[in-house]
Amino acid sequence: MKIKKIILLCILTVTVTALLTSCFSLFATEPKVYSPELLPEERSSIVFGKLSKEHEYYQEVTMIDPACADYIQELSIYDAEIDDTFTVHISLPPDYSEDQKYPMVVMTDGVWRLSDHPELRPMMTNGEIESVILVSIGYPIGYKYREIRARDLVYVPESFLHFIVDNLVPYLSEIYSVDPENMTLTGHSLGGFWTIFAMFNNDTIGKNTFQNFLIGSPSFSASTGLMYIDDFEKAYYARKQSLDYNVYIAVGANEDDDFVLPLNDFVDRLDARNYEGLQMKYDVLEGYVHETSFKPSIRNALLMFYGKEDS
Question: pTM, whole model, 2 decimals?
Answer without folding.
Answer: 0.90
